[in-house]
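FYI - complex with magnesium ion, inputs then prediction.
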Amino acid sequence: MLTIEDILRDLERYCDFPDPENIIDDNDIITEGNYRNIISIPLRNATCCFQGEPFSVEAGASKICIVFDNLPFVIKIPLMGRHSYDYINGDTMHLRGSCYYIPESKRTSSCYYFSQTRVDSNELFSDEDWNYCDHEEYISDLAIEEGLADFFAKEECIGYINNYPIYKQEKVEVYASSNFRNKPSSKDTYSLLDDIITSGPTYLDVPFCDLDEDREWLAQALEYHGEEQFMKFLDFIERTDINDLHSGNMGYIGNRPVLLDYSGFWN
Ligand SMILES: Nc1ncnc2c1ncn2[C@@H]1O[C@H](COP(=O)(O)OP(=O)(O)OP(=O)(O)O)[C@@H](O)[C@H]1O
Ligand SMILES: [Mg+2]
């Protein structure tokens, strides 16, 4: 059986994690653009990593994820740099790093062009907030405290490699590519969902939520968890600024609708 210790040992053996304290230029920053060089390629080329467990490496704007075909959990690694939308030049994605973790004296000039991290957006966050996995762990714990654990794939830090933090999260079947996506809920559920959405002026009124695309998942979540819990969940995501509700961030554990990406996204 592959253990967490085995996984950390292989990541350390084959991948090149920069020590956040010692980063001196942009080339050291792990971003979506260079994650392949740091994580994917060395693992693929290793003769036997993870004891031969089949896996794929996925990435979004703020995290890398190692998804094992046959294990009930994934490994999540926060990106240090991240993508940001450049609204001035149209809606193009530009590669940027947050640089907040770099001591001021060592920041390269390009750091000053980088967009905000979550740092300034909410008092929940601190200077360390280039780390979106750390924020997910915080939300995961808060959800447990508030009786809403069932809506979230649980996440926790499992250790550090060269001071670089590594996380584990329950594996989720992603809504965007799941067959459950086409499973309709009852008529009553859809009309209740419509009532709920129109009754709260700010519910789900967030930039990365597409109500058409997310509709089946929302209805399924309402049906599965019940109206009372669903209302608490909507209040929770509003309070904690979980604004990145798109179909790649929702999914299922078994037939239970959960969020897999609940760090939000900030330009
Ligand atoms: N628990 C999980 N189970 C299965 N796949 C996962 C899980 N967590 C993440 N993934 C995969 O890794 C991708 C990136 O993870 P995640 O969505 O958490 O990061 P992100 O970079 O913040 O994404 P975004 O682009 O939405 O900001 C996901 O889109 C998904 O394909
Ligand atoms: Mg995501």
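Residues 13 and 49 are 9 Å apart (CA to CA). The first strand starts at residue 55 and ends at 59.
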